[in-house]
Amino acid sequence: MQYDITVIGNDEAAFEMLCLAARTAQRTAAVLPESSQSSWLVSLALKHLVSDLLVDQCTNRRQLLKRTGSPRLLRRLLAGAIGKETVELTQMLERLNVDIHWGQPRFISNHSIAIADRRTSQQSILNSHHLIIGTGTRHTAMRQFPGPVRMHRPETIFEGNSLPQSICMLGGDDFGCGIAALFSVFGVRSRHVTRGKQNRAMLELAQAAGVEITFHPSEPSVTRSIGVLSNSHADIVDCRQKIGFTEHLNLSAIDVEADENGQLWCSDGLETWCPGVFGIGDVVGFSADSKVHPSVQAKRIQQQISHQIPQPQLLDLFVNAEQRRTGSVLTFANN
Fold first, then answer.
1. Which of 137, 117, 134, 118 is nearest to 126 (CA)?
2. Which of 98, 128, 132, 133 is nearest to 309 (CA)?
3. Residue 80: is its pLDDT beyond 90?
4. Is residue 53 part of a domain?
5. Residue 256 falls within a domain, yes or no?
6. pTM (predicted TM-score)
7. For every residue of 18-36, which 3-state class applies, written as one string?
8. Beta bridge partners of 241
């Protein structure tokens, strides 16, 4: 299979890139993971899940949630919310005529990747003029603290047989804020310690769910507060560090290295050391363009590669114009 542009991952920037590429390239492909969801997608699912749970604020429902809550239930609710978001985003890509491939991608060369489908145990080869990595990041603990502090990693949040009495999320941006809100809905006394990088809507949602928000301007101030937090008998979850989803990509095959956080070293134009392979979104760790909005990143990549993409024929242009006129093609919007 041959494509003009292939985007790997399900980060916000990956979908922004796909929406732009689908309008300018003749053949665009998306490689979506069966697991290892990006922090952005999980945060989006958390926001909608907590919103739904807060719709009915009657006392009876609140008491029911407190009685029936368990780590297993919260894990299943979140998995269902992630599945719902994935379906909606996939349908959006289908309306844009993007070819969707599911599985674990591995680089073979700068123009080829192998995709392993765990459901069928088969492997397919996908060739593309340009490959763009938008796998995003996950949150993890920054360090282990000595002493009696009960510090948990984000991946252990939903373990155990019962919910804790209280929980404190350290960092994690929208992810940490959303997790705190979800626990709070189920009667857990929740606190979120943050530098204030969250989306405003997520902060307001967490506060509506009863989360106590504490702002710390710097990393040292958060670290000094660990002892104080431990005295509150809260289960502390450290999710201040971002780790890129890149370890499965076989980057060594194209002589590309990730930094100690699994994020990519890119030029100011978001191109990696390998020509034709770009990074986009949270997975980019070093670049002047790494902090700009994903839609801006997508446009900058598009500007660099547009002259190398075959232009669509007149009939293709007419069909695309008709789709836009009738509204059959939707523009991706950040929820």
1. 117
2. 128
3. yes
4. no
5. yes
6. 0.85
7. HHHHHHHCCCEEEEECCCC
8. 140
Q: Which of 5-14, 191-200, 302-311 has maximum average pLDDT?
A: 5-14
Domain with 169, as residue range(s), is 140-241
* Rounded CA separation 133/106 (Å): 11
Phi and psi for 7 in degrees, rounded to 5? -115, 125
Q: Which of 20-34, 74-88, 219-233 has the lowest mean pLDDT?
A: 219-233
Domain count, the chain: 2
What's the distance, CA 141 to chain centroid? 17
Q: Is 182 exposed, middle or buried (0-12, 13-18, 19+ CB in 10 A)?
A: buried
Do residues 174 and 221 share a domain?
yes
Question: Could you identify the residue written with the tokens 């002892």?
Answer: 227
State both tokens at 175.
Answer: 């992810």
Q: Are residues 25 and 121 in the same domain?
A: yes
**144 & 224 share domain:** yes
Cα angle 167, 165, 206 (rounded to 5 degrees) comes to 45
**pLDDT, tens digit (0-9, with 9 covering 90-100), for 178-197:** 999 999 988 899 989 888 77
CATH classification of the domain holding 279: 3.50.50.60
**For tokens 């080829």, what's the residue?**
112
Are the C-beta atoms of 259 and 285 separated by less than 8 Å? Answer: yes
Q: Check whether residue 180 and residue 250 sit in a common domain.
A: no
> Which of 224, 241, 258 is where one domain is finished?
241
